[in-house]
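--- STAGE predict ---
source: upstream dedup step, 1 unique chain passed
mode: sequence only
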Amino acid sequence: METEQGEPPSDPSALFHDLVSTLRETRRGVHQHRMAQSLLQKDATGARLVGLSADIERAVFFNPASQTLESIPFDREGTHESEASVLSSQLSDPASWVETHATRLGWIHPHFRWACGLEDECVRP
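--- STAGE serialize ---
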């Protein structure tokens, strides 16, 4: 895995705006801010937001407690954990998964773009 030099991105406002921008480009309706808030709220409560699927219909979260990477559908009402599917288990480093599957993601969290050296590459299909 390639690792960039310097500090990883950490501006929560920039993260929110980046996520909203992606949702505006890809999801119809007027609820992109609500969807972004739901995803970032889940990110702040233990599960780490890794990215969004290529169709921007599912969010990829890493659960450090169970060491699983899950794909979870979301909409303006929030995330729907009951419809989650496990993408990888016994995973200690989600960055290695991102590096391998970056082309299958429509958006990658800035931290993982940095960790995988993808900052200058297009991360949207």
